[in-house]
Amino acid sequence: MKMHVLSGGRVRLKKKIYVPEAAGDELFELPVMCFLLRHPQGNVLFDTGCHPSTAEEGSTRLGAISRSIKVVSKPDDHLLTGLAGLGIRPEDIDVVVNSHFHFDHCGCNEFFKKATIVCHAKELEAASAPNAEAAGFLTADWKHPNTFDTFDRQRDLFNDERIVLVPLPGHTPGISGALVNLERSGRHLLASDTVALRVVLERELNPRNNWNGEAALQSLAEIRRIEAGGATVIFGHDEAQWNTLRKGAEYYD
């Protein structure tokens, strides 16, 4: 199996959301990460990043969300470009795993019309609830005619321990990571926004954009346990780590 790290765009927001001592007006830019897992039984995406339109019309698509987070991607900086560079068409994707249903993690779902969408049952429930858009769940991003396949506990996607989905609630009710077991590159935990930045794990911080702080801290403890077992944690939006990762055609296997 091969794991390709791909760009899903870039966003700008207040640093204080993550780092409590940051100045209230200090902004920083963060990468949006997507992953292509080329499993023998099919092509799997873990998250799909920002919709291409948000690069130039972010406020139109995102509405009120754009007051607190801005998409600052270049027009061609999105998942579809990265896949095309690998010779992968949207119809070649068999499964899309969404860690959660915020716009920067499921924005390109609509392009993968043949794919089954895999997510935690509580995430689908939260996104489907009344007034869900006020909580950051935009129907334009996640609600499409695809088949949904939900889980409510740890899920081995192909029953071979290569891609194991791990519930890590706190940032949202059903956010989940993926424990990817690679033959030569070892185990990697794709942590998504449960740990968006390395500093969150190192200092056991509780970001302001978490849905449930107590659950989030429990999930941090689970990630520490997984990391202590030898897994490399890939943080959801960490710029320093992003700059060290193999990307595009350079894969992990």
Question: Could you characterize what this model shows?
Answer:
This protein is α/β, with parallel strands linked by helices and 253 residues long. Helices cover 23% and strands 28% of the residues. It has eight helices and twelve strands. It has helices at residues 54-62, 79-85, 103-106, 121-128, 139-142, 198-203, 213-228, 239-242; strands at 2-14, 27-39, 42-46, 69-71, 95-97, 116-120, 148-151, 155-156, 163-167, 176-182, 186-192, 232-235. It is globular. The relative contact order is 0.17.
Give a quick set of tags describing it:
single chain; 253 residues; alpha/beta; seven-stranded mixed sheet; five-stranded mixed sheet; 28% strand
| Strands ordered across the widest β-sheet | 4-1-2-3-5-6-7
Helix count equals 8
Low-confidence stretches: none
Please state roughly what percent of the residues sit in beta strands, choosing from under 5%, 5-15%, 15-25%, 25-35%, 35-45% or over 45%.
25-35%
- Indicate the structural class: alpha/beta
Instruction: Describe the largest sheet.
Output: 7 strands, mixed
Give helix % range: 10-25%
Shape: globular
Number of strands: 12
Roughly how many Å is the radius of gyration? 17 Å
Q: Overall mean pLDDT score?
A: 97
Tell me the distance between the termini.
6 Å
Taken in chain order, the helices and strands follow as EEEHEHEHEHHEEEEEHHEH
